[in-house]
Amino acid sequence: MRTVKAYVYSRVSSMQQVDAFGLDRQISTVMDFLENAKLPAELGYQLDPNNHEVLDSDKGLSGYAGHNFTKGSLGRFKERVRSGEITEGCLLIESVDRFSRKQGYDAY
Residue 53 forms beta bridges with which residues? Predict the structure, then answer.
């Protein structure tokens, strides 16, 4: 079975959360998942803990307003995908609310 690269994303809405180790916790949780991931065979790929990229963390960017897509690391990741620089992989996020706080249809 083929393996794909994992991209690890983290975000906090306020600078106080940066100081409270919110980013460290998110990255640590995702890395623990990556180390122990046993994905269903139906997906057609597996993750290799040695093949990952930790994206720059979005610090103080709102997921509700979508600033992480327009000003942040997640937006840069999206552009790398759109440009063809990243052609396959798996974006790993501790919780869906780190991706966006918008309603599903509006969350890009």
Answer: 7
| pLDDT tens profile 40-87 | 999 999 999 999 999 998 887 666 666 666 778 888 999 999 999 999
Please state, in angstroms and rounded to a whole number, the distance separating the CA atoms of residues 5 and 24.
21
Q: To 10 degrees, the CA torsion angle through 89, 52, 81, 22? A: 110
Tens-place pLDDT, residues 28-49: 999 999 999 889 999 999 999 9
CB 44 within 8 A of CB 2: yes
Measure CA 13 to chain center: 15
Distance CA 67, CA 49 (A): 29
Asked if 98 and 17 count as a contact pair (C-beta separation under 8 A), the reply is no
φ/ψ bin of 89: left (φ > 0), alpha (ψ from -120 to 50), beta (otherwise): left
Tell me which residue has tokens 């990556």: 34
Q: Give me 42's structure tokens.
A: 């139906």
